[in-house]
Amino acid sequence: MNRKSRRPSEQDLPLPIHRSYVDKVDGDCVLKVLADQLYWICDLGSCLSAELVDREHAPYTWTVRQVMEHCVDAERIWGDRMLRIAAGDTTNLPAWDENAYAAARFGLGNLTHLISELGNLRQANLLLLGRIVPAAWDQVGRVDSQPLTPRGIAWLAAGHLQHHFEIIEARCEISPQRLPM
C-alpha cells in the first residue's frame, strides 16, 4: 500500500456524510480503487438501454441520464478541488448545488459521451494524483468552510461513484461487472 493513498482519517474527511460514502468502499489504496472503477464505468454504460436511461425510477426524482451527468460533474469538481488543495491554495472553495447542475444540464448528454467523459475525467484525476508529491496528499484546504485533503477528496470520489452506480444497478436491475475477470 502506498502511504499517500491510504484510507482517510477524520482529519482528511471530517463530515459524516462523506465518511459514509467512503466506508462502503473496499480496499486500502485509493489509486487502485479509482483505477478499478474505470472498468465498472465502461461495463455499466454497456448495460444501460435507451429505455432505462431517460425513465425516472420511483422513489428517485432524477433519470439515470441525470445521475450520470451528476457523476461527470462531480468527478470534474473533485479533480479541481484536489489540484487546488494539493497546490496549497487557501481559498475557501464553494459548495456546489448538484440539483441546479442536474436541472441545467438535463438532456444535453449523449450517454456514450457521458461514459467517455466520466472515464476521461477519472483517468485525468488518476494522473493528477500520481504526480503530486506525498506531502501534498496531507495538504488541508477548505470546501464550504470544511477542512479536506486531496486524500479525502480522492476517497470521496470513489465512494460517491460507488454510491450512485449501486443505485443505478438496483433501479435498472442490471449487474455489470465491476472488475475485469
Integer count of domains? 1
Helices and strands, in order, run as HHHHEHHEEH
Sketch the major β-sheet: 3 strands, mixed
Strand order in the sheet with the most strands: 1-2-3
User: Low-confidence parts lasting 5 or more residues at pLDDT below 50?
Assistant: none
Individual helix count: 7
Summed over residues and divided by their number, the pLDDT gives a mean of: 92
Q: Give the strand content.
A: under 5%
Q: What would CATH call the architecture?
A: Up-down Bundle
Termini gap: 22 Å
**CATH domain class name:** Mainly Alpha
**What is the helix content?**
55-70%
Q: What is the fold-level CATH name, i.e. the topology?
A: Four Helix Bundle (Hemerythrin (Met), subunit A)
Rg for CA atoms:
16 Å
Structural class by secondary-structure content: mainly alpha
Q: How would the global form be characterised?
A: globular
Total strand segments: 3
- CATH homology group: dinb family like domain
Question: What's a quick, concise take on this entry?
Answer:
It is built from 7 helices and 3 strands. The chain is mainly alpha-helical and 181 residues long. A hairpin with a 2-residue loop joins strand 2 and strand 3 (146-148).
Task: Explain what you see.
Residues 47-168 form the DinB-like domain. It holds the Pfam family DinB_2. By secondary structure, the chain is mainly alpha-helical. The protein has a single domain (20-172), classed as dinb family like domain (Four Helix Bundle (Hemerythrin (Met), subunit A), Up-down Bundle), CATH 1.20.120. It has 7 helices and 3 strands. The protein has helices spanning 16-23, 30-47, 50-53, 64-86, 98-105, 111-131, 150-172; strands spanning 92-93, 141-143, 146-148. It has a 3-stranded mixed sheet. It is globular.
